[in-house]
Amino acid sequence: xxxxxxxxxxxxxxxxxxxxxxxxxxxxxxxxxxxxxxxxxxxxxxxxxxxxxxxxxxxxxxxxxxxxxxxxxxxxxxxxxxxxxxxxxxxxxxxxxxxxxxxxxxxxxxxxxxxxxxxxxxxxxxxxxxxxxxxxxxxxxxxxxxxxxxxxxxxxxxxxxxxxxxxxxxxxxxxxxxxxxxxxxxxxxxxxxxxxxxxxxxxxxxxxxxxxxxxxxxxxxxxxxxxxxxxxxxxxxxxxxxxxxxxxxxxxxxxxxxxxxxxxxxxxxxxxxxxxxxxxxxxxxxxxxxxxxxxxxxxxxxxxxxxxxxxxxxxxxxxxxxxxxxxxxxx
Amino acid sequence: xxxxxxxxxxxxxxxxxxxxxxxxxxxxxxxxxxxxxxxxxxxxxxxxxxxxxxxxxxxxxxxxxxxxxxxxxxxxxxxxxxxxxxxxxxxxxxxxxxxxxxxxxxxxxxxxxxxxxxxxxxxxxxxxxxxxxxxxxxxxxxxxxxxxxxxxxxxxxxxxxxxxxxxxxxxxxxxxxxxxxxxxxxxxxxxxxxxxxxxxxxxxxxxxxxxxxxxxxxxxxxxxxxxxxxxxxxxxxxxxxxxxxxxxxxxxxxxxxxxxxxxxxxxxxxxxxxxxxxxxxxxxxxxxxxxxxxxxxxxxxxxxxxxxxxxxxxxxxxxxxxxxxxxxxxx
Lengths: 331, 331
Description:
- The structure is a homodimer.
- The first copy, chain A, has one domain: Farnesyl Diphosphate Synthase (Orthogonal Bundle), CATH 1.10.600.
- With about 325 residues, the first copy, chain A, is an all-alpha fold.
- Chain A contains 15 helices and two strands.
- In chain A, strands 1-2 form a two-stranded antiparallel ribbon.
- The first copy, chain A, is globular.
- Chains A and B meet through α2, α4, α6 and α7 of A and α2, α4, α6 and α7 of B.
């Protein structure tokens, strides 16, 4: 762990919080708008995407001069994430997010639609007002990818024929596109060379894949895994994640998983079903294959770091990747 | 009617359609995304907002040189409108829009959330890619106003204490903000002077108010009024429009309207209720007062036209305003 870099990052993350507060300010609307904005301001995430952005920006020659702009961009990338969570929660019918009631649970789906749109409108205003021309288009592209990923995932719901290829396309949009944006935005605004931008882009994409596969593994590996979610929530919603898809490539396992899927679709999926699915996913090797994929994407991200000039932040990236991959070892 | 201007506008509107087709292109996603985009491309609206934009741009000195950019902007403003309709239909539970099934009726609310977001992401990409820096921020501001208007309207739902002042604030966001954007965008990109921009801004805002009040009047005035909507749909959804709000200012009428509102809230609102509400809104003078307001906003829009330099398009604007106000005369 590089203590100097960690300390610097901590200071910048405090600046990111201040910008977030500014972006979520109520200019005097009052009423429901005011409550929605305050709730968003109080929801506390891990702020992973701004961290990625600021870490990536360390490699740029203009990093010092652009520091304030980079913190602002970090807040904007987090806002994109927040807006997507609000709209995702509508679709997932999620009651909780980060331990707090979701916008849709508290104010209804209808309110949540516009709350997410309101965040998007603030992002657009800031991108233009603060002159983020090049990054602005990337933000638009990332949001398109996120929509396509979510729409693709919906299409795969309850679909016995869903494939690993579709899963990878969907998680690109769900997670990797925004991690890519974070790293690219940091690279571009800090004046990284084209070659460095390419490496940081790869770092972001592969980090995103790793991170989403990890999330999907945790749903099976840890019984105590909660974070406001019930275990196997995806499967109960008809979404087949990587461990399940690999398990279904086993001809003997597939029929039983399809039976479990039908049970879930009929709302008849209890603890026995969850335990059986876990066993099937484990014994068929689905879990191990998914874990191996996660490690592969982590290795690709590490390779991108290795291709970048040596810098104190490289170790912070390596620590982050190692920390994220650790849990899977338990599986 | 100015035939030369009408002919020119017609040609430009054809260009707007081509750009819309381009914006709604599927780059090869396939599946649900592809179907959603194709449906959007096939939905045909009146294209009022691009018309406003192109008409406003006639006053600018750079109009000829900027024609192609203006048509592109016209398509973008229509896309903002389409995205907002998709999200509004989710909230309204609307089965039809322009005679066709809504995105949410056809594919479900969940799909509609991302379909609207996808359009917004395309708008952002084009605003940056095509260099609409100044207009870009205005688009963000308009979208924020639209969200605030819709959130404000939701807060007034089933609220016996809703006021005319709240209604005006809400319809600013629902309708006037985007008409303002259309006129301002046309003015700015065609190189109108600051003074002209101010007049065109007023024209847009007042046109928007007029247009929304007209829409709300039509719901009571014409029994045959359909356009895919059932009569008094707003009231049945708990939304009190201007004629109802004015009727409720009459102390004798108010209690009975509240009874009807309760009936609507309990889902017990049939033809007799609708007929009674129409009578109450008419005899209390609510309809006449709302019609007078509509005329007042139309007059303000006409005044803005009068303050602009004389131009062939001024008569097209006047014709449009007269045509839109005509139906109210029947009430």
